[in-house]
Amino acid sequence: MTVAVVVKGYPRLSETFVAQELLGLERRGIGLHIVSLRRPTDAVRHPIHDEIAAPVTYLPEYLRRAPLRCFRAWRQVRRLPGYRAARAGFLADLGRDPTPNRIRRFSQACVLAAELGDTVAALHAHFLHTPGSVARYAARLLGLPFSLSGHAKDIWTTPDWDLAEKLRDAAWTVTCSEAAAARLRALAPEKPVEVIYHGLDLARFAPHGPRQSARDGSDPGDPVRILAVSRAVEKKGLDLLLAALAALPAEAHWRLTHVGGGPGLRALMRRAGALGIAGRISWLGAKTQAEVLAELRRADLFVLPSRIAADGDRDGLPNVLMEAQSQALPVVASSLSAIPELVADGETGLLVAPNDHGALSRALLRLIGDPALRRALGDAGERRVRARFDCEPWLDRLAARFAAHRARRGNDARAA
């Protein structure tokens, strides 16, 4: 059975968890065909993407750029037995969401069905918003089952009615945290939602070994090294981090390294200048997974002050926290969403309330001045990640979902 995996963009630098899952499924014998709603925009590409054998089909991102391709697909799928039901579902959705985006998703589904319909036996969507819509419409057109993986933004910013209908129509749904599962189960109580953590490919994140740094912020020539890895977007709280750092006492010597791109990066650089701390920050931009690993091994502590953005967007369970803890690096993070499922406050890291830059500053100061506490939290965090968040058993569970699905399809075919 070949599964068409619908994603918003491929490959994406910020979604190594998707690539890890695709590669893991291939290694377990699941045939995949990646269907991307847009072409990649990242200048950097992770090596893991080169290990994935699945072909990639890019759907037309904007209809005006491929009108003939969309028109031919529509004419072809009009003859499918499922067209009437798919069109009715689309028109019902359009009445509640009368946007060009909704029209674009139905057109993309028509292209998917026309061009790949004879080659796939099921569809799976990573993210419940736009990929979920395309997979749902295409599945109706083709008379095939579809399944869903929910993550973060898609769960918290998609309208309730849209999520509920997709959950009810899907053959099965998985998500990557208990916090996310609770929200989805409340929207469609009759449909089970299974928690399958992304976990971490520990073969790519070998143990760092005991951390010996005795830096305590007292030496201006050897400051404590703080690392933040995230896109420069509102939900990551990097402006809060700058305010927290600016509030630290002058005698606490530190240096921040930030890894990541994002639309807010230049504004953050200007803000750092206004706060008088620009000279203590290195902005490295987007980096590959191997380069991030090297930065994790150089750092003394890791910080990610996530918060809820104005549009409701928020982190789920950020993989970068697992990556940091896999290297015995102590973390400071927000007590938001699913983060407490990974970080136990005072045991495997420090948690602070979202949007509280004062509490964030105090937590940073505590770790800056106490290398023994950093080692204790880092060691405990590493033990928890390696015991609970190894990706392999979670990938086994996900592959079993597809295998059971394949068995049901085979039984149905024999019965017919």
In short:
The chain is an alpha/beta fold and 416 residues long. Helices cover 46% and strands 15% of the residues. α5 (100-116) packs across α6 (130-142).
| CATH homologous superfamily grouping of the largest domain | Glycogen Phosphorylase B
Strand content: 15-25%
CATH class of the largest domain: Alpha Beta
pLDDT < 50 runs, ≥5 residues:
none
CATH architecture of the largest domain: 3-Layer(aba) Sandwich
Overall average residue pLDDT = 94
CATH topology of the largest domain: Rossmann fold
As an assembly, this protein is single chain
Q: How many domains is the backbone divided into?
A: 2
Number of helices: 17
Largest sheet composition = 7 strands, parallel
Number of separate strands:
13
Query: What is the element string, with H for helices and E for strands?
Result: EHEHEHHHEHEHHEHEEHEHEHEHEHEHHH
Helix fraction bin: 40-55%
How does the overall form come out from the CA principal axes?
elongated
Structural class: alpha/beta
Instruction: Give the C-alpha Rg.
Output: 23 Å
Please supply descriptive tags for the structure shown above:
seven-stranded parallel sheet, six-stranded parallel sheet, Rossmann fold, 416 residues, 13 strands, 15% strand, alpha/beta
